[in-house]
Fold this protein.
Amino acid sequence: MKKLIPFITSGIFGGLIVLLGLYLTKPSNQSQSQNNFAKTVHQVNMKPNLNMSAFDFVEAAKKTTSSVVHITAKQEQTVSAPRNSTPFDLFNFGMPFDYGPREGTGSGVIVSKDGYIVTNNHVVEHASHLEVTLSDNNTYLAEVVGTYPKADLAVLKIDASNLKILEWADSDKAEVGEWVLAVGNPLELNSTVTAGIISAKSRSIDILKSKGRDAIESFIQTDAVVNPGNSGGALVNTEGELLGINTAIKSQTGYYAGYSFAIPSNIVRKIVDDIIQYGSFQRAYLGVSIAEVDFEIQEELGMNDIEGVYIAEISDGGSAQYAGLLPKDIIVEIEKQEINSVPEIQEVISKSKVGDVINVTIFRKGAYLDIPVKLKAG
């Protein structure tokens, strides 16, 4: 035992030294660990988060509100409207009306520094007196430069200069799921901004069918909140660029119930530019009566999984006839852009100019053909 005592003592002493070392070094390691953790968190927080820019609407709202105006439309004589409401209510005056002088309100977007403003035709079509109020509360009398009811658009002019305008967005590049802002003057609440996403594109809701079979309906559908008074206001992307003109809502009551519809900027821009330059929209026509391809058409033509737009009739003397298109042809592409619905083909043609030559890809008797078509006026 006397021989073992030195070894036992050395072991105990060594163990105490190890324990003491662990005790003294633990706070340091823990502190270092905490510092490393704090540093990591700091680095994560400081790292640029590109996705966050999609949710930062402040700058887009600032750019937009000063370019969106409030329109007051007064009418001397009343135009009666039926009492049976439609699920798709235009919202210039909010609800159907019948007797007595009326005053309605809407919105508009400044598109030139010298006072040209785009709005919906239904905001101004019955008005005998128009007033435009800017975001700084200055009020101007406005005159109608021109309208195109078949797309529910109108251009106004006020005597002003150095106005703030919005840059045009390319609505063709907008994608479903993309964040957007609706800016306007709903329910007499001036300069109101709401946010939502694009829910669908090239949407037709038959609100312009009274304007004729060639009415242009290819709306951007969003879930941004709009209400009576938003008509003619701006739909903008997160860069604050004009993506569309808010036009209608789907509602049983005349107030927001889930979805709103805007005219795409590429359609708006072509019509507005023509009205300012020529006084009216110089619309190009393909010269066809069309329908969407369904199962019956596929079965009749012996097609399998071919999507597109079916040519039912060809107009005499029209662009399609001169180019060699035929009834029962299926239009599948125009200028390499896939065509799957009537609104899509309406949108493509409405952006084209009279005299443009467009390449139309068709499916005919089991083969695909590319046919150049020179567009004529209607």
